[in-house]
Design a protein that fits this description.
Structural class: mainly beta
Order of helices and strands: HEEEEEEEEE
Largest sheet: 9 strands, antiparallel
Radius of gyration: 21 Å
Helix content: under 10%
Oligomer: single chain
Strand order of the largest sheet: 4-6-7-3-2-1-9-8-5
Strand content: 25-35%
CATH architecture of the domain at 21-50 and 70-159: Sandwich
Shape: elongated
Length: 179
């Protein structure tokens, strides 16, 4: 009897260990573009509120296998942040974009959600944004820093990484004998 209980526990542990983790943070290393000296880092933290906790069943519709993403509940936002160095003192617009560096598409969320990066005399600056859209695992995203509000040329860019598949709850083993 004891060995059966241990086998059942080990089997459940193995299923849990094989499940893919929920991706909640994407990161990018920004590199200079077009002869600029601007580099830095960026992160996007994605809420995982639509996914089930390990000790409860997933809410109805929480996981759409065709989209590989949980829908963002009303009011949920992704939190993006960027830190740069090597820039001249001033303000620099930035955005998370769909697509990779060099072929970036439109900004993710509203462009007005992104507060310009304020760079001080030491050439460093940071900014944050609350984006009312969730990043979809398996889709390419990048972070662009632009030259100015008047000149939207990209002076630094980095591809976001970490957006692998979100976790699916492992199937329950209904064939195992009951203790």
């Amino acid at each position: 009897m004891l060995s059966r209980k241990l086998t059942l526990c080990a089997g459940a542990g193995l299923l849990f260990a094989l499940a893919k983790p929920i991706v909640t943070s994407w990161t990018a290393t920004l590199s200079p573009v077009g002869g600029s000296a601007v580099s830095g880092t960026a992160t996007v933290d994605v809420p995982d509120a639509g996914m089930a906790k390990p000790d409860q069943a997933p809410p109805a519709g929480a996981y759409d296998s065709a989209k590989k993403a949980a829908p963002a509940p009303a009011g949920e936002t992704a939190k993006a942040s960027v830190t740069i160095s090597g820039a001249k003192e001033g303000e620099y617009p930035w955005h998370v974009h769909t697509g990779k560096c060099g072929s970036a598409g439109p900004p993710v969320g509203s462009a007005s959600a992104y507060t310009p990066i304020k760079v001080s005399a030491d050439g460093k600056g940071t900014s944050q944004a609350n984006i009312s859209a969730k990043l979809t695992p398996g889709t390419d995203y990048s972070v662009n820093v632009h030259k100015s509000k008047q000149d939207m040329a990209v002076i630094s860019c980095g591809d976001l990484k970490g957006g692998g598949d979100q976790m699916q709850m492992p199937p329950r083993d209904t064939t195992a004998p009951k203790p």
